[in-house]
Amino acid sequence: MKRFFSVRAPVPLLAALTLLLMWDATGFAKLSLLCAALHEGGHILAFCALTGHFPHVTCSLSGLAMKMDGVRLSLQKENLLLLAGPAANLAAALAAYLLIQHRASYLRYFFACENLCMALFNLLPIGFLDGGRLLSNCFGLMDGVLFRALTLCCCFLLAIFGGVLLRYRGAGFLLSLGFCLMVLALCAKSLRS
């Protein structure tokens, strides 16, 4: 029987999730995880609709990842697959916005904003994100120096924007350091791919 789900490094993953959920007094971490699951769920539903079978999903510390298991899709179908995740987040943000019109709450606002941010972040033209792969599919830039330069430029602008935002909001040293490390990891992964 074929397995459709696997977990990479289950002990560190469970430890990180336990700590995250244990220290989440506001419930925002749970909503963020739900938004990430909705994003990947959009990709999975699109894959099922386009191919007729379920993909292999891997869960790790870096998130959920869908493996296509050698399935070759046309460029148009792959673009639809790439757009399905952000579309799921945008649909969830719209639903939350409509619920806010009926009865507002901080959790609904956060859910709408988190879904919107997740959709926009994944549409950034960074190599391994949905936006980078869409850009590569549309313009054939994946292996070029121009594509890597665009990716690094986008990471640099993200770092500047985040640094200014953190500085403006008076963020602590550890939060600023964590953000810088995240952007450096993003740059390193972009250069490797």
Describe the structure.
The protein is mainly alpha-helical. The protein has a domain at 126-193. It has 7 helices and 3 strands. The chain has helices at residues 10-22, 28-51, 75-102, 106-122, 130-139, 145-169, 173-192, and strands at residues 5-7, 56-60, 63-67. A 3-stranded mixed sheet has the order 1-2-3, with helices on one face. Helix 2 (28-51) runs antiparallel to helix 3 and helix 2 crosses helix 4. It is globular, with a radius of gyration of 18 Å. The mean pLDDT is 83. Keywords: Hydrolase, Membrane, Metal-binding, Metalloprotease, Protease, Transmembrane, Transmembrane helix, Zinc. Its cofactor is Zn(2+). It comes from Anaerofilum hominis.
Give a summary of the structure in a few sentences.
This protein is mainly alpha-helical and 193 residues long. It is built from 7 helices and 3 strands. The protein has a domain at 126-193.
SS content category:
mainly alpha
- Alpha carbon gyration radius: 18 Å
Mean pLDDT comes to 83
Number of helices: 7
Strand order of the largest sheet: 1-2-3
Note the overall shape: globular
Helix content: over 70%
Q: Would you identify the regions where 5 or more consecutive residues have pLDDT less than 50?
A: none
Say how many strands there are.
3
What multimeric state do the chains show? single chain
Q: What string, H for helix and E for strand, traces the elements in order?
A: EHHEEHHHHH
> Approximately how much beta-strand content do the residues carry?
5-15%
Distance between the termini: 32 Å
- How does the major sheet shape up? 3 strands, mixed
Keywords: Hydrolase, Membrane, Metal-binding, Metalloprotease, Protease, Transmembrane, Transmembrane helix, Zinc
Family: Belongs to the peptidase M50B family.
InterPro entries: Peptidase_M50 (IPR008915)
Subcellular location: Membrane
